[in-house]
Amino acid sequence: MFNQAPDTHLIRRIAVIGSGIAGLTAAILLGKQGHSVTVFEKSRGPGGRLAAKRVSGGSADIGAQYFTSRNPAFMDFLTRYAGESSFSPWAGRLMFQHSDGKRAPFPEEQRFVGTPRMTAISRALSAHVELVPETRIERMARASSKWDLFDTEGRDRGRFDQVVVTAPPAQARDLVQASGLDELAGRLEHAVSEVAPCWAVAAHFSQPLDPGFDGMRCQHPVLYWVANNSSKPGREDSGQWWVLHGDAEWTRAHVDASPEKVGGELVRAFQDLTGADQQPDDIVAHRWLYARSGGEDFPGHLWLEQLGIGLAGDWLDGGRVEGAFNSASGLVKAMTN
User: 71-107 pLDDT, tens per residue?
Assistant: First the structure.
């Protein structure tokens, strides 16, 4: 049915689904090549995993905690399109906890955070694209060599020559399956099984705590990661906000628990981990159904030229924030070669 590959030099209208780092990277790079690009985002604003939760006195990073730049092109891209004021190095004391409870420092590597919150980066990047928020694309319908996009309200969101999907694998699978692309949906099943959920909790302590670290990858039945959000540059908190990420297996077992119960459990685990006895005076919980990517099969991106559909995201390139950029930039190269 789709034997004729389109001429990429004639393609001008491109839809990007998702406005995390991968979606914004793809949209900016394609736009700079002269294409007309529209980004559709299901939430109120851009960000993806660069997420921050509004809390009393400011915000707390509940998604990606920091990022690295091992690919120089990533830092060049952020500096040019997000601006140097949107991110800063984080000189936090970061630790690994071994199975025996002992701690070791992270390897020496510069790590960055958005300032004054992680979403500062995605919001700055989104200024360079046409963004349609609060719009979940539910299905695509083939129209000759193009695609008509429809949202969850059944509204026609336009006809596009190519579509770039940067949603998490489960949402990408559901979209392509609803669009009659069963073979592609089947190819995504393994990736779906490798993505773990995560309960995230931001807990505020009126008096500062110092457990000897600012962030730690834990060996704990309840906790995967804890971090002093207030130690990051640009945060001017009264007291301290700590971010607690639940262990994947624990989260799976409690995925439908109430935010109040989850908040209490993660705080008690944090107290057990650090020996702190101070009670928080504010707790905010958020459930990530699609958080950390697993597995080792990372093709970088997927480009189906005959269909005019590409997939990009951190889950296709190692799971890191920088992986989202690498995936999207690799996809754009494949689309325009």
Answer: 999 999 999 999 999 999 999 999 999 999 899 999 9
Give the E-state strand segments of the chain in sequence order: 13-17, 36-40, 52-55, 58-61, 87-89, 94-97, 103-105, 112-114, 130-132, 137-143, 146-151, 156-160, 162-165, 195-205, 215-217, 223-228, 240-246, 282-293, 302-304, 309-311
Type of residue numbered 224: Y
Residues 6+ apart with CB under 8 A from 42: 134, 135, 136
Beta strands at 195-205 and 240-246: parallel, antiparallel or unpaired: antiparallel
d(CA 272, CA 274): 6
Q: What pLDDT shows up at residue 237?
A: 85
Of 71, 87, 90, nearest to 79 by C-alpha is: 87
pLDDT for 199 equals: 97
Interhelix angle 21-32/119-126, rounded to 10 degrees, is: 20
Q: How many CB atoms lie within 10 A of CB 254?
A: 19
Q: Model confidence over 285-304: pLDDT tens digits?
A: 999 998 877 655 679 999 99
Task: Give the pair of three-digit tokens for residue 301.
Answer: 């991106």
Tallying the residues shown for the chain, one arrives at 337
Residue closest to 327 by CA, chosen among 298, 297, 292, 305: 298
Whether the CB-CB separation of 286 and 262 falls below 8 Å is answered with no
Residue 64 in tokens: 């990606």
Is the pTM for the entire model greater than 0.90?
yes
> Which H or E run contains 313?
none
**For residues 300, 84, 35 and 20, what is the CA-based torsion angle, rounded to 10 degrees?**
50
Lowest model confidence (mean pLDDT) among 175-184, 286-295, 305-314: 286-295
